[in-house]
Amino acid sequence: MHRALGWLAAVGLAGGLVMAFGVAPREITQGNVQRIMYLHVPTVLVAYLAFAVVLVASIAYLWHRSPAADRLAHASAEVGVLFTGLTIVAGAIWGKPTWGTWWTWDARLTSVAILFVMYLGYLLLRGMIEDRERAARYSAVLGIVAALDIPLVHFSVYWWRTLHQPPSLLKPGPATMSPEILAALLVNIVAFALLYVYFVVKRATILRREEDLPA
Amino acid sequence: MTADHWGFVLSAYGIAAIVLGAYWRHLCRRDRELTERRSHAAPKAAHPRTNPVSPVQP
Fold first, then answer.
1. What's the ipTM?
2. Which of A26, A85, A90 sits opposite B12 (nearest CB)?
């Protein structure tokens, strides 16, 4: 099951690369540097998904005290931090040639940085508390509170005047990009989502096996 | 005609490939370690050492 998911994710990523570099046309205003979008947008959407899973699993843990829900929240937070870090790095690399700067304290960038730091804190909190039940309870509360930043990140481009462009996909109305660009973006989103599922399943299984080890 | 900045594009994809590949390897290595630990622990569990009888009687 794990192996099949891993292969599916690998094939999806290879397909995503073909779509991003072979099928999608060169963007007229930005040139080829716009191809970073096929990495930047899927990673941030998967990070949203990962933290939404943390929110749901944290509520489930507080409700039922299920260790499986706690493991899911832990695994999803770790993978979410990984994808948020990649979003920030890819965005900075894209920002330098298009905006002339690697970083600016713009509302979107700042709210994503806060999201990254909050979930990094979530992982640190888990690692700092030795008592498993207490670590699970405290991190579940933090996992719920931190999720409040997700809508802030998404709507920051509407609520404040920012350098960052508005969303390309998660917005009302039809997509404003060409069908080839949209197809390349969707293939990459699916590929990164498969990779997320593979990572989370594998990480959660490892966490369960670690818990089963004799002390 | 705008500049293409291929160096930036390759850097972004290269860093992503390295980071994701490293995490993937980390998970596979941890999985292998746990399997080895379990296989080492299994024979011990199958033949538990009997406790010696205490010479001191209560």
1. 0.90
2. A90
